[in-house]
Amino acid sequence: MPVADFGDAGGVSTETLTSAAELRAFLNGLPGVDRVGAEERAARLASRSIKTTAKAAAIDLAISMVDLTTLEGADTAGKVRALCAKAARPDPSDPSVPRVAAVCVYPDMVETAVAAVAGTPVKVASVATAFPSGRAPLAAKLADTEAAVAAGAAEIDMVIDRGAFLAGDLMKVHDEIVATKEACGDAHLKVILETGELATYDNVRRASWLAMRAGADFIKTSTGKVAPAATLPVTLVMLEAVRDYRAATGRRVGVKPAGGIRTTKDAIKYLVLVNETAGPDWLTPDMFRLGASSVLNDLLMQRRKLATGVYSGPDYFTLD
Amino acid sequence: MPKQQPKPHAKEPVRLPVRKTYKLFIGGAFPRSESGRTYQVNDADGTFLANAAKASRKDARDAVAAARKAFGGWSGRTPYNRGQILYRIAEMLEGRHAQFTAELRATGLPKSAASAEVDAAIDRWVWYAGWADKLAAVLGSANPVAGPFFNFSTPEPTGVVAVIAPDSPLLGLVSVVAPVIVSGNTAVVVAAPSAPLPAVTLAEVLATSDLPAGVVNILTGDRAELAPWLASHMDVNAIDLAGAGGGDVAALEEAAAGNLKRVLRPGDGDWTGDPGTARMTAFLETKTVWHPVGV
């Protein structure tokens, strides 16, 4: 695949003050995405057959990349603690199962989650900035972020202002990401593009570059509250963006598809996509995450099938 | 010399036979086998009848998942409603009488015997349908206990039942499927490999009656290949070994012990006699409730 020319992106660091005109010119100057080509390539890669030992390795890798998520209005402290226990020991009957990467909760549940995962390497991620719509004044979004960081969140999942992005107010989106990044302090910042609302792959590519230039540590597809959530072609476009961004600047940005990933087969398709697009450097929980909750039980069921040779059932794993 | 008259049918094109390749019945849909395999089904004379799908273990897994998904809704329906749906299926079976008769004749039965067996199969289905709203009355009980409690027991469906159907292609099949689902269980059926077409036709009947998707899933293919996967499957609650080969039964029972499945052993293979309630009670649990009274 020919590497596109990304102009002067190499000269732009996250520290540089970006002018609105320069940002607009750069993002509009990005090459368009070949929609048919992207969908075809994602479908082609999704048809790879991953079996036996490779499948076992892929399942363990996928488990270690899961951001175990509960983002419901009905979340209780008890549910969050149960989720954290599952994150630390996904299958209590089998200590060889790896831990998941993080739990992802609403800001008011961060304190509960931090206490529950204390002593384990599981991180606590919090959504912030008026998730999922992002429709709040900047001051409220920043207060939301600061509260989550103060409560101990190691990772912040922010949403971009899709309305401003679609209206062409790119600078507003950029500045909000920069301000949120500042409010995060040491916490990692994941920027949710909500690709289901961006309408085109070209917009996904522009939003990816916009977020990366504004300082995102991760770019994330979706909130999980909008259909369609993560899809393979969208993730392909984002993986190409992080690959090209590294080629241009040397900085590596992670990718997190979220929502709609329910089966082991889905998860393995994403791993293939990562390996073939961004490269094996991204095949670590530091650079790639799967935002999901139901997929974990399927991964555990498949893992047990490989270990015992008989099909397992949902009765043998916790509900969440 | 008189002008030769053309024979009336000489100009008509020869009609090509429509060769059929049947599919599986999983979750209310008719998918091909995940493996892409099929096998040839011949009639008693060895003449080609149709291709049938040869299910793989992954089709069995998908069928179990579909049956599990359907269990809550099916077991939650009122027994009266389940009975109505089973009666509806009997009506649809009656409408396909000629097709079933033709399929049985292809297995070598004379016309009268084939027709009689279809009659018997439909009657068997109706007989089981009638049990839907009577099971609780016959099998449940109010139990006298030494305390101020109203104590009663009711029959509850076991869950997902794997059914290894016997060689009797229609009467045997109906006699093992109906008793499983009438009480609210859902079924994964492995059809008789030698004569799968009546099972495929039954699937078409079930798909166009009011039976919810996934309550009955029908796999065609090799019994010896599929049965061990169903017997060992941890999400299957019971297995009916009616059609299992004599030599395989012990191994299947052993595999079924992995999650303490209920196991129904093969009978004598005669499906014409009075069925009795044994096949229904084999897949029922008893729930007993203690309710305080008079306090």
From TrEMBL, chain B:
Keyword Oxidoreductase: yes
UniProt entry keywords in alphabetical sequence: Oxidoreductase
One Pfam family, short name: Aldedh
InterPro entries referenced in this protein's UniProt entry, alphabetically: Ald_DH/histidinol_DH, Ald_DH_N, Aldehyde_DH_dom
Domain Aldehyde dehydrogenase: 34-263
Protein name: Aldehyde dehydrogenase family protein
Organism: Actinomadura fibrosa
